[in-house]
Design a protein that fits this description.
alpha+beta, Nuclear Transport Factor 2, Chain: A, 6-stranded mixed β-sheet, 3 helices, 6 strands, 44% strand
């Protein structure tokens, strides 16, 4: 067997892939983790609804800051370009509504810019999800509840 021309693994199927079709809530979190791990802005962009908003508390200034989808993509692109490595771990879901549209979930994120510049973020995301006409879940609103 040639290691540079491996055979196709027929056992992977749709459940075995790294990327989800986002038709289930878990698929949103799976694709989010994939996008961060592989610094994939295309997959990340598919997580966000057209009307997406991100907001967080700027504790230094004592104000809430928010932006839309375009700014979120610019910020995330910058993070992906400047980080050597991103390790995102999703923890337990803290609260979820019966229709799965509102989810608060904790996470651990390790951002490695270089071996001497590593940032550890432990926080919570408060997400409002929306199911599109294509039956895919997307993030409509993300409130960052981290104390960073």
């Amino acid at each position: 067997m040639n290691p540079f021309a491996p055979e196709i693994d027929e056992n992977l199927g749709s459940e075995g892939g790294l990327i989800s079709d986002q038709k289930k809530i878990d698929g949103v979190f799976q694709n989010f983790q994939y996008a961060y791990t592989f610094k994939d802005t295309l997959i990340y962009s598919q997580l966000l609804d057209k009307e997406f908003t991100f907001s967080f508390r700027n504790y230094d200034l004592g104000v809430d800051v928010s932006w839309g989808r375009d700014e979120e993509m610019k910020v995330t692109y910058g993070l992906f370009q400047n980080a050597q490595r991103l390790d995102l771990i999703w923890n337990n879901i803290i609260t979820i509504t019966g229709d799965s549209t509102s989810i608060i979930r904790s996470f651990n994120l390790t951002i490695t810019f270089n071996p001497t510049d590593i940032i550890y973020v432990d926080g919570r995301v408060n997400l409002l999800l929306k199911k599109g006409e294509d039956d895919k879940w997307r993030i409509l609103r993300w409130v960052d509840e981290s104390n960073f």
